[in-house]
Design goal:
The protein has about 100 residues and is α+β, with helices and mostly antiparallel strands. It is globular and about 40 Å long.
Length: about 100
């Protein structure tokens, strides 16, 4: 049975108090900007970072690993679901979604 090669990842979760999508940075902060996230290129390190994130239940819920790619601006999503999460909730037009429509 062949195993898929490891692809770069970031750790994603939801902020405990407001539910926003957040990503783990290299210095253990949670950011609402995926471009600031730590891009992890080693599978063992990714597992360790996920374990660390799962221990942060006082700040986040639902931590998981997300496929990502390196860009000049920082990590970026490779799947539409994660690209959608970077724009915030879809049930109203304010916050990140409103900013995106204005080109911010």
């Amino acid at each position: 049975m062949s195993r898929r090669p490891f692809t770069p990842k970031v750790v994603a979760a939801n902020a405990l108090l407001d539910g926003d999508a957040v990503w783990l940075t290299a210095d253990d902060r949670w950011t609402r900007d995926m471009a600031e996230a730590e891009l992890i290129e080693d599978e063992a390190v990714a597992e360790d970072r996920l374990i660390h994130a799962l221990s942060q239940g006082h700040e986040v819920v639902g931590a998981y690993l997300v496929d990502a790619k390196a860009t000049a601006e920082g990590p970026a999503p490779t799947h539409f679901r994660e690209a959608f999460r970077t724009r915030g909730p879809s049930n109203y037009r304010h916050g990140k979604q409103a900013d995106a429509s204005r080109g911010l």
